[in-house]
Structures are given as C-alpha cells and as structure tokens.
Amino acid sequence: MRAQKGPLKGLNIPLTLMAVLVVGAFLGFGTYDPSYAEEVFNEAMEWVFNYFKWYYIGVVAFFLLFAIFLLISRFGDLKLGDDDRPPEFSYFAWFSMLFGAGMGIGLLFWSIAEPIYHFQSNPFAQEGEGKAAAETAMRLTYFHWGLHPWAIYAIVALALAFFCYRKKLPLAIRSALYPLIGQRIYGPIGHAADLLAVFGTIFGVATSLGLGAVQINTGLNELVGLEVGLNYQLAIIACVTAIAVGSVISGVGRGVKILSQLNLILSGIILLFFLSFGPTLYLLSSFVQGVGDYLQNVVYLSFWTDSSGARDADEWQLNWTAFYWGWWIAWAPFVGMFIARISRGRTIREFVLGVLLVPTLLAIGWLTVFGGTGLYQELFGAGGLVDAVSEDETIALYYTIEAVAPGVIATLAAVIATVLIATYFVTSSDSATLVITMLLSVGNTEPPTAQRAFWGVGEGCVAAVLLVAGGLVALQAAAIIAALPFSLIMLLMCYALVRGLQDEKNRMQMDWQPGRRPPGAPHL
C-alpha cells in the first residue's frame, strides 16, 4: 500500500520503513564501533568466499549462457513494449547511459592498476615470462570486465522490461516473479524480493562511491597538493553526493541523460590522449589480439575453479574473480532496473546484442588503451609503475599520464580524468537513487522528489561509513555479502522469464489464427 500523504507519499509504507530501519541500523553499527564493524565485515566476507566461491563461479557462467540463449532463441523478435512503440532514446544516448551506469568509477579505478597487479602475479604466469605475462594480465582483466557483468545486467533488465512494458506490471523486481507466484507479488514475498534489491543496490553502489572518493582524493593531491586522508575523502563524498542529488531530482531525461553523454565525451577525450601520446601502434595491435585471446579463453576461465589446487590460485581467485562476480551481482538490481527504464521499445534480440556486445567492446577498448599503456611503460619504458601500484593503486592512472606526455598536457589530462571520475560518481549515485525510490514506490518511474533526495544522501552516508569502518576491504565485503541472496532471486527470474516469454509467444500465435482477434487487441 502506498502512502497518500506525508513524507512517505507515493511510497510503499512497510517496504520503505523496513529499508530505512535496516540501513539506519547498519549506519549506527558502523559509526558506533568502526573497528568491530571492520572485523565483522572481514569475517563475513571470508565465510562467503570459503563456502560459496564455487557457487559464484558457476552461477555467473550460467547467467552468460542464459543471455546467449535469449539472443538466439525464438523470442528475439518480441518487443519490450507495445509493438508499435519506438525506442525512447537514440542509440547514442542509450549506449551512453548503459556504459555510464554499468561500469563508471570501477573501470577508471582498476583500468591500469588491475593489469599491473596481474602482471606481477597471476595463476597462469610462469616466472620470467615478461611479455607473455603482460598478455595474460590483459586477458584476465578483460575476463573480469567483459561479457559476464553485462550478462548479469542483461538478465535483470530484460526480465523487468518485459514484465513492465509488455505485461503492464510495475517496474520492480517483484514483477519478474509473476509467472511463479501470481498476485502474491504484491504481498510479503514481493516485498522481500524488492528489499533484497534495495540492499544490493545501496551496498553495491556504496562500494563504487568509496572507490571514487579515494581516486578523486589522489587526483586532487596530484593536481593541487590536497592531502590524501579519510577526512578529505568524506568531504569529497559529501560534495559529489550533493551534485548527484540535484541531478537525480531533475530526472532521467535531463540531468542523468546529460551527465551520461558528458561521461562518454570526456571518456573519448581521455582515450584520444592515451592513443595520441601513448604507444599507438602497440595499443591498436593489442586490441585486435586481445579480443581474439579473450574469445579463445573465455569458456575455460568461466568455469575454472582450480579445484585440485594445481595452480595454488585460491587466494587470487577469491580476491579477484569471486569478488568481481559478487560485485556485479550486487550492482545488478540498480543497473538492471536503470537499463530497463531506458530500453523501452527495443526488441529482445536488439536489447541483448546492445547490452552484451557494445559495452563489452567499449570496456575491452578502454582497458587496452589504459592498461596497455601502463604495461608498455613497464616492458619498454622507464618502468616504476609496479612499485607505485604496490604502494597505492589509486596512483596508477596519474603515474601513467605523467609518463606518456609533457608537463602541461599531462596536467590537463589529469584534470579531465579527475572530472570524469567525479561525473561517473554522480551518474552512478543518481542512477542508483532513482532505482531505489522506484523500488520503494513499487515501480513508479517518476518517484517522489523528496525521497530521491533522501536516498541520494543515504547512499553517500553508507559509502562514508564503509570507508570509516575498514576502507576498501569493508567496501568489498559489503558488495560480496549483499550479492549472495540476490543471486537466488536472479535464478528465479531466469525461470520466470522463460515461462513469461513462452506464454507471450503462445498468445501471439493464438491471436494470429483465423477467427481470433488481431494482435494487440485488448484482453477483455
């Protein structure tokens, strides 16, 4: 039931109160005793990793296979919405918002640091390999940022878009369970599904906001000498959260759309910088080779768990692959709902192709240009990046910028990179805020303005508390823990989506039979 007046006007009262209560309890716990909170987060993450690493590997591989099945299935020509409705956004705007919401800060944060980490140590490298180790490092980085996260997003987004725009149900996680539980989606089971999505969104996005604050702090230190420290990072969260709240209040068609397109433009500028001043031919060759190398190894890596311990890779896989898979699942409610919100009018085949392939190619290109430039400096240049990243992974981006360009140009590029991090911070925050308030209002695509502002501030508070209660480790732990229950909801969504698509195809075939009503005629 939605409140008709008061501060909760337009929101589902039980769902909103439960979300506020649990998030408030978390904030109080983290603020009252940060040291104990850090210990709890670490133990919880270790428990999840030790017992469910195999599950994360297997379930994410299944999600990718399921997305490919939808792409080539007989359901591909179904439209996400009425048959005569055109897409709401152009391809440029659609891809801009897809990429900005789905990757953003994390891709900037890890685009150089992660390949450098894998270059130093990974389960598949042999001692003294050098150039071969660099190729392996890029392959593993592509694996973590390629098809798998976008398959996770595509499944959630497609299920939501189909049941909302085709079946006229609310744009909420609960609606994807309709073929399984019917009208009970409006009861406690539906509330529980949406509540899990709210928690996954809050803690998954808080991880990215914390990473963004740390990275911006490093950028300002490089540019203006601002000290790197927790207090400054908390101040950065406060400032950028305020901007994000203003953006989300303006709506998807204005603030979110404009900032997403600005992200794509600034991303293009910084990519051109590296291509122009970096090892251009090496990067172009690495991109072509890297795509082929990724495609050759993606199946093996998708199912590899090192079950026999032959490569002694348990710790590496926990820290990297299992963490990423949990992080992407935690992000899935908010990215999936946001993608569904902007994808009305697309066919299923067009949708899956767009969501799987275009952002994956963009991510591989981005990682090649950034990570490849960093590795080139280690292999053929002055070096030093490995030591720098070992001390502080946030310095990798700025260290590489300084290594490839002269002073003034490097400074300008560093400014653009820092602004880009901030705009990705804003788009991640306002996209998540919009999704949270849509969930709490049971699918209202224009949720109350006051609630958007409230939850925008709330996300910043959660990110701040996680930074205080353990820094990056606490941020990672929150994402991993939040992902576990929502992955079960995703498995149910896959089954429900197939049933819903089969029913829709059968209905359309019945409609086309002689003597039946024409397609699109209302059901009485």
Automatic annotation (TrEMBL):
<feature type="transmembrane region" description="Helical">
    <location>
        <begin position="352"/>
        <end position="376"/>
    </location>
</feature>
<feature type="transmembrane region" description="Helical">
    <location>
        <begin position="147"/>
        <end position="165"/>
    </location>
</feature>
<feature type="transmembrane region" description="Helical">
    <location>
        <begin position="322"/>
        <end position="340"/>
    </location>
</feature>
<keyword id="KW-0472">Membrane</keyword>
<dbReference type="GO" id="GO:0022857">
    <property type="term" value="F:transmembrane transporter activity"/>
</dbReference>
<keyword id="KW-1133">Transmembrane helix</keyword>
<dbReference type="InterPro" id="IPR000060">
    <property type="entry name" value="BCCT_transptr"/>
</dbReference>
<feature type="transmembrane region" description="Helical">
    <location>
        <begin position="12"/>
        <end position="32"/>
    </location>
</feature>
<comment type="similarity">
    <text>Belongs to the BCCT transporter (TC 2.A.15) family.</text>
</comment>
<feature type="transmembrane region" description="Helical">
    <location>
        <begin position="52"/>
        <end position="72"/>
    </location>
</feature>
<feature type="transmembrane region" description="Helical">
    <location>
        <begin position="453"/>
        <end position="473"/>
    </location>
</feature>
<feature type="transmembrane region" description="Helical">
    <location>
        <begin position="92"/>
        <end position="113"/>
    </location>
</feature>
<feature type="transmembrane region" description="Helical">
    <location>
        <begin position="185"/>
        <end position="212"/>
    </location>
</feature>
<protein>
    <submittedName>
        <fullName>Glycine betaine transporter OpuD</fullName>
    </submittedName>
</protein>
<feature type="transmembrane region" description="Helical">
    <location>
        <begin position="479"/>
        <end position="498"/>
    </location>
</feature>
<dbReference type="Pfam" id="PF02028">
    <property type="entry name" value="BCCT"/>
</dbReference>
<feature type="transmembrane region" description="Helical">
    <location>
        <begin position="232"/>
        <end position="252"/>
    </location>
</feature>
<feature type="transmembrane region" description="Helical">
    <location>
        <begin position="396"/>
        <end position="426"/>
    </location>
</feature>
<keyword id="KW-1003">Cell membrane</keyword>
<keyword id="KW-0813">Transport</keyword>
<feature type="transmembrane region" description="Helical">
    <location>
        <begin position="264"/>
        <end position="284"/>
    </location>
</feature>
<keyword id="KW-0812">Transmembrane</keyword>
<dbReference type="GO" id="GO:0005886">
    <property type="term" value="C:plasma membrane"/>
</dbReference>
